């Protein structure tokens, strides 16, 4: 399997050997134990990185076998269960099992798609350097995922009352009953973003690692609390708003790796316009709705027995996270603008988030 990680496992080994002789006092003994613990963790991390296909297959096989053998509780990993009285679906603590299963599944799908589909495509496209082959495969997976789930999310939103009407984010709250399609969509997206924390540490670390990690954590917090607080309508809208630009950027990068520089630059221009429209204008409208409209349609109240979880502090919490996310998006747009300036100058589109050493390998 191609190398999915640039983790310097050797450094842990060297640190262990360098410090193994320092046993003269309690402080050095504690430091030696810390180094050994780090070394063991690095071994575990390396094993997980190198077995992203085999381990998920084993876990999924065990869960499936348990279900076939009718082991109590095993069905929670595979199925969502409806309310027999309404035929609809509500939030449940048991949803954690379903999310875990799909974290494992996405790990398998990503690794297998990259290994057996996208890597051969890259090689047939005459991409020779291993670093570029890996990046092509990573971007290809992102393109495939966001294309599918943006389409799925837009379908759900199109058939919803809040299609181009933000007031229905709040009207008739709490929105505790969901269709099967909507609940599956939301939990699959949540599983994907949790799995992205693993991916973030597997892929080559970039200059905006802190911003990317912050973005992922905020997204996960927003999805988690919007789900348990029955605010999934606005969650669906935010996901669709964010996912659209994430279709075009990976595709532009793939075209660049394949040598289609002119098409790449044109698509990058389209991406930049779509970013402005979706992530600044439309997402700005969602932030405005979050700031202003709840007061018009929702009373501040905490009543768990009614599945009602909207207080003034909850309102402020969501508004704060939305605004922090917008700040990160503005930071990224500054980088995008810098790339656009280089394209206009004739230098071609480059990912400013890449490290200098990575650019040398890619270019």
Automatic annotation (TrEMBL):
Transmembrane segments annotated in the record for this chain: 47-69, 97-122, 143-164, 184-202, 209-229, 257-277, 317-341
GO cellular component terms attached to this protein's record: membrane
Signal sequence bounds: none
Listed InterPro entries: Lag1/Lac1-like, TLC-dom
Span of domain TLC: 131-345
Domain of life: Eukaryota
GO molecular function: sphingosine N-acyltransferase activity
Originating species: Gigaspora rosea
Upper lineage: Eukaryota, Fungi, Fungi incertae sedis, Mucoromycota, Glomeromycotina
Gene Ontology biological-process entries: ceramide biosynthetic process
Keywords: Membrane, Transmembrane, Transmembrane helix
Pfam families tied to this protein: TRAM_LAG1_CLN8
PROSITE patterns with a match to the protein in the record: TLC (PS50922)
Membrane topology (UniProt): Multi-pass membrane protein
Family: Belongs to the sphingosine N-acyltransferase family.
Entry's localization field: Membrane
Name used for this protein in its record: TLC domain-containing protein
């Amino acid at each position: 399997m191609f190398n999915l990680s640039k983790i310097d496992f050797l450094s842990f080994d060297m640190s262990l050997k360098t410090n193994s002789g320092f046993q003269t006092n309690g402080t050095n003994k504690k430091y030696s134990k810390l180094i050994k613990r780090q070394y063991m963790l690095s071994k575990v991390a390396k094993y997980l990185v190198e077995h992203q296909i085999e381990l998920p297959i084993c876990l999924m096989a065990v869960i499936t076998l348990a279900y076939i053998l009718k082991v109590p509780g095993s069905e929670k990993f595979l199925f969502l269960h409806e309310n027999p009285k309404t035929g609809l679906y509500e939030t449940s603590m048991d949803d954690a099992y379903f999310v875990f299963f799909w974290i494992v599944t996405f790990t398998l799908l990503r690794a297998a798609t990259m290994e057996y589909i996208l890597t051969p495509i890259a090689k047939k496209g005459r991409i020779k350097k291993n670093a570029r082959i890996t990046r092509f495969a990573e971007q290809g997976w992102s393109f495939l995922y966001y294309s599918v789930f943006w389409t799925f999310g837009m379908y759900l939103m199109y058939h919803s009352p809040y299609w181009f009407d933000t007031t229905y984010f709040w009207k008739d709250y709490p929105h505790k009953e969901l269709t099967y399609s909507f609940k599956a969509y939301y939990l699959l997206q949540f599983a994907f973003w949790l799995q992205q924390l693993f991916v973030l540490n597997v892929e080559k670390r970039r200059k905006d690692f802190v911003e990317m990690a912050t973005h992922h954590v905020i997204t996960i917090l927003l999805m988690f609390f919007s789900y348990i607080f029955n605010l999934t309508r606005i969650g669906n809208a935010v996901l669709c708003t964010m996912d659209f630009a994430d279709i075009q950027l990976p595709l532009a990068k793939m075209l660049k790796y394949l040598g289609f520089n002119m098409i790449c630059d044109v698509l990058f221009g389209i991406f930049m316009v779509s970013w402005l429209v979706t992530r600044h204008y439309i997402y700005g409208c969602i932030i405005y709705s979050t700031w202003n409209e709840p007061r018009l349609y929702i009373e501040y109240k905490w009543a768990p027995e009614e599945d009602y979880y909207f207080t003034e502090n909850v309102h402020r919490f969501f508004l704060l996270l939305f605004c922090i996310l917008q700040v990160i998006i503005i930071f990224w747009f500054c980088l995008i603008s810098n790339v656009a300036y280089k394209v206009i100058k004739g230098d071609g589109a480059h990912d400013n988030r890449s490290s200098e050493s990575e650019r040398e390998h890619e270019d």
